[in-house]
Specification:
The complex is a heterodimer of chains A (about 110) and B (about 110). Chain A has about 110 residues and is mainly beta. Chain A has strands at about 5, 10-15, 20-25, 30-35, 45-50, 55-60, 60-65, 70-75, 85-95, 95-100, 105-110. Classes of the chains: A mainly beta (about 110), B mainly beta (about 110).
Chain lengths: ~110, ~110
């Protein structure tokens, strides 16, 4: 199967860290992506990780991948009100690597 | 690089009418994708092109849907005889044809069928 699951909602205080979790089922996934979507807009690529990596850091973003448990997380340090959005994780598979399988998204609300 | 551009941003149509959407990818990208997103869900793959060749179509793409990319640059997605269930955000994305290259999405066309 090719299901990607995410928790639906996360509330976080401004300045705290946010952690958004994702699980996937396809063991042949090669790349995993995080996208951000603001209301009425398209998807903005945040970061991505190759499946042979455990961690990737990019400024305030840290991606952790546990391939054994098929678990992916995105940590946002020093969360700001502008980080309020829906966050999607997505997986691609070697044989169809442009055909992404998305989760339903996690709505992150940042409160002052 | 102006990013992926989609037109129109919004389209309201009556059931049974035909609609056409356009996507202009990032200029050096030879892959172009169409996805559909309904409220509260993640995007779902519809089809993709490499240059002008349509390489894969999802079973979600009924025979009322047709996509073209005649010169390997912009693409159009046409929906014939629209139904209320076609109401969704239609997203276009592009990428280089290199394994792992991420997809870059446009802002989408929101279709409402009344």
């Amino acid at each position: 199967g090719e299901d990607v699951e995410q928790s639906l909602f996360l509330s976080v205080r401004e300045g705290d860290s946010s952690v958004i979790n994702c699980t996937y089922t396809d063991s042949s996934s090669t790349y995993l992506y995080w996208y951000k979507q603001e209301p009425g807009a398209g998807l903005q690529l945040l970061t991505y990780i190759f499946s042979n990596m455990d961690m990737k850091q990019d400024q305030r973003l840290t991606v952790l991948l546990n391939k054994k448990d098929k678990h992916l997380s995105l940590r946002i340090a020093d969360t700001q009100t502008g980080d309020s959005a829906i966050y999607f994780c997505a997986e691609s598979i070697t044989d169809s690597w442009g055909k992404l399988q998305f989760g339903a998204g996690t709505q992150v609300v940042v409160t002052p | 690089d102006t990013g992926v551009s989609q037109d129109p941003r919004h389209k309201i149509t009556k059931r049974g009418q035909n609609v056409t959407f356009r996507c202009d990818p990032i200029s050096e990208h030879n892959r172009l994708y169409w996805y559909r997103q309904t409220l509260g869900q993640g995007p779902e793959f519809l089809t993709y092109f490499q240059n002008e060749a349509q390489l894969e179509k999802s079973r979600l793409l009924s025979d009322r849907f047709s996509a073209e990319r005649p010169k390997g640059s912009f693409s159009t997605l046409e929906i014939q005889r629209t139904e209320q269930g076609d109401s969704a955000m239609y997203l276009c994305a592009s990428s280089l044809a290199v394994l792992g290259e991420p997809l870059h999405f446009g802002n989408g066309t929101r279709l409402t069928v009344t």
